[in-house]
Design goal:
The chain is an alpha/beta fold. It is built from ten helices and ten strands. The strands form two sheets. It has a six-stranded mixed sheet, with helices on both faces. A hairpin with a 2-residue loop joins strand 1 and strand 2. Helix 8 packs antiparallel against helix 9.
Length: about 260
């Protein structure tokens, strides 16, 4: 397994845990970290021993406290566009479109690019001390890694604009009320809760799970018809090894045994 400079990877019981490991910088996303995350997510997506990915931050202060501002403070307009474009392609869209589920374990601050990474994930669990927000307008810029789009999709246009325009932070409790996160748990229960959900996912068909992710995402993607994608993905499941195993197990009154 490859060693990384800014992230840690562990794989056990078909669950990969990726930990962004820059605690002194509150796990801020710099160019190197985004590159390593790109490589790691691609590795996990191709590793047949991985059925679910959990992404979190090291220590207990921050999931990811934003991007590393000093890297782009002097950027031109074109460099700014390229920074956003590359980020979308190499990490945030990659996570959202990954063929296996990604659970964000939000431990502490999830600000700017950190919240955008959590929102690109399929499921979000927050610790009680988590604080979430998109403070970019306080720096004279806007969220550039999908924040203006995904936040609105998750909590609605009005509340999304309020959070973005005020550059404010919300508590984990408020995030749960807004349905920005699925659950709020204690710090010590954060990874166990993620693993609990992961175990439930692993019992099911990986082919069907991948198809479901594509169908749900299509409903939020410009130029795609979610219902048409559902029909396409539904049909694609038939005659697969997972469909044969799942239906056979049901008819034989036994538990299905799915393999990736």
């Amino acid at each position: 397994m490859k060693k990384y400079q800014n992230i840690l990877l562990s794989i056990e019981n078909q669950v990969a845990i990726i930990t962004i490991n820059r605690p002194k910088q509150l796990n801020a996303l710099n160019t190197q970290t985004i590159k390593e995350l790109n490589e790691c997510f691609i590795y996990c997506s191709k590793n047949l021993d991985v059925r679910v990915v959990i992404i979190t931050g090291s220590a207990d202060k921050a999931f990811v406290a934003g991007a590393d501002i000093k890297e782009f403070a002097d950027f031109s307009i074109e460099q700014g566009k390229e920074l956003s474009k590359k980020g979308h392609e190499s990490l945030f869209n990659l996570v959202e479109e990954l063929n296996i589920p990604v659970i964000a374990a939000i431990n502490g601050f999830a600000l700017g690019g950190g919240l955008e990474l959590a929102m690109a994930s399929h499921i979000r669990i927050a610790s009680e001390n988590a604080k979430l927000g998109l403070p970019e307008v306080s720096l004279g810029v806007i969220p550039g890694y999908g924040g203006t789009q995904r936040l609105s999709q998750l909590i609605g246009k009005g509340k999304s604009l309020e959070l973005i325009l005020t550059a404010g932070m919300i508590s984990a409790e408020e995030a749960e009320k807004l349905k920005l996160v699925n659950y709020v748990v204690s710090q010590e229960d954060l990874i166990p809760k993620c693993l609990e959900i992961a175990k439930k996912i692993i019992k099911n068909s990986p082919i069907a799970i991948s198809a479901a992710i594509k169908a749900v995402n299509a409903g939020y993607t410009n130029g795609l018809d979610g219902m048409e994608e559902e029909i396409k993905q539904f049909g694609s499941c038939f005659k697969t090894t997972d469909f044969i195993e799942g239906t056979s197990a049901f008819l034989e009154r036994r538990k299905a045994e799915f393999k990736r």
